[in-house]
Design brief:
The chain is an all-alpha fold. The protein has 22 helices and two strands. Helix 3 packs antiparallel against helix 12 and helix 4 packs across helix 17. It is globular and about 75 Å long.
Length: 566
Amino acid sequence: MNSLLRKKSIDKILKDAAEGYGDGEHSGMHKILGVRDLTFFGIAAIIGAGIFSSIGKACFDGGPGVIFLYIFTAIACGFAALCYAEFASTVPVSGSAYTYSYVAFGEIFAWIIGWDLLMEYAIGNIAVAISWSDYFTHLMDSAGLHISHWLTMDYSTAHKGFIEASAWLASGNPVNEMDSGLFEKYQAWIQAPNFGGIRTILDLPAFGIVALITYIVFIGMKESRAMSNILVMIKLAVIFLVIVLGAYYVNPDNWSPFTPNGFTGILKGVSAVFFAYIGFDAISTTAEECKNPQRDLPRAMIYALLICTVLYVVLALVLTGMVSYTKLNVGDPLATIFEERGLKIIAGIVAVSAIVATASVLLVFQMGQPRIWMSMSRDGLLPKIFSRIHKKYKTPSFSTILTGLCVAVPALFLNLDVVISLTSIGTLFAFVLVCAGILVLQNMPDRPESKFKVPYVNGKWIISTLFIMAVVLIVMYAPDHFTNILSLEGIPMLLFWIVVLMVTYLTFTRQFSLIPVLGLISCFYLMAQESHTNWLRFLIWLLVGMCIYFMYGRKHSKLNTNKHKE
């Protein structure tokens, strides 16, 4: 058991990173990033499919009141961001939450979070690539350059669309009255080549953009930084244009009722809304390429999160004010609402900017995942080839190529809704562990010095009071809540209450700091909103990772003092 919980000291981590070892060669990485570059990377990672695609589904589920979910999610992410910032300042290396967990909890937890991050970045980029493909295809159609529908979507979406369209036609409805999105899915199915009874349906644009971004990330950080800065400035300019122009068409009547589907409807958008915030943590993977990571990483995380939250809230209000929330359940809501207003030029600009925005997200996450591979390899948990640094480009070469393949190939076939949910639950799990890690770090007897620390506020009485108030309010206004959590669907929420009870007790007895505790609880609450199906998929992924760890990582770990004796 002790071997599973063996920890790596901060001094050792910093020494290894300074030596820049990988495949046995001394090779460091280019330190060129400042706070502006990191803030732009953060904005590039956050603002993408979440604002150009999934915001429509969130508004459809929650109505104008979805802004409350954006604000709550921002607060939860803000707590997590402060914890990330302290870790980034204390342990300024590329491993992000993986390395932080190695310091706080030990090797087995580090492996779990590292494996989780690999899923988060890969699945997240698959979702972004699919969203990029939707906007790209729409733009090509607008320009008169049609791409066959069977080359622009996944098999499952086309099949479901075909079944739904067939039922529509069987009921005697004319094909020309069919919804355009449904018609595209129907066409994709009937036009797709048939090989051995299997229809060939794949998302080729999604594959292509991942391949291009992987190449840019491979050839160097300078090139990646330059492209990120340009793309961020373009999409911010377009978002401001949408807000200013859209405000002119806002009809306040569309905001009534403000929460048409109640609190339950708002919470239905958890996956979509949280997906919109994913990204600020990814910049911590660039620590070894920062000029002053201990100072600049914390600042950049907070700056990026604040800027994006304001934009999300304002844009959600503009969208739900321009049209009824019932019309926003589309893949490209910003372009759609301007087309309905007859502003096709603006719709075209939005479509182009969406392509730019989602490409910038791909860029950041394609940088992040290889550096997780690299960090795990440095510690011996993965083969040495994963930490190989290219002699010319100073990037993790093998890991970057592998990341490209792990994203590009699944993007050909997977469905957007599935990958968004998996991305959200994986990211929230990382946030929970990072917040918990700060509680461990703050109580270390030999706590290392850090240029940034989460402000300490004794949470003893505050958390206890909030817990009692929450229970009382639920009993008064939602008496079925505690009964419902005993069902299969209620297991995630049951786990939430178990965790909250334990954290409340420990906070009271050990006087834990308020902010990390609030971050842990709020992120776990969002995690509990995911369906039990997503939890099952997530657990299966972790079990696969555990098998790899016990078959390879545990034995080859650099902290395994017995490996040289075997």
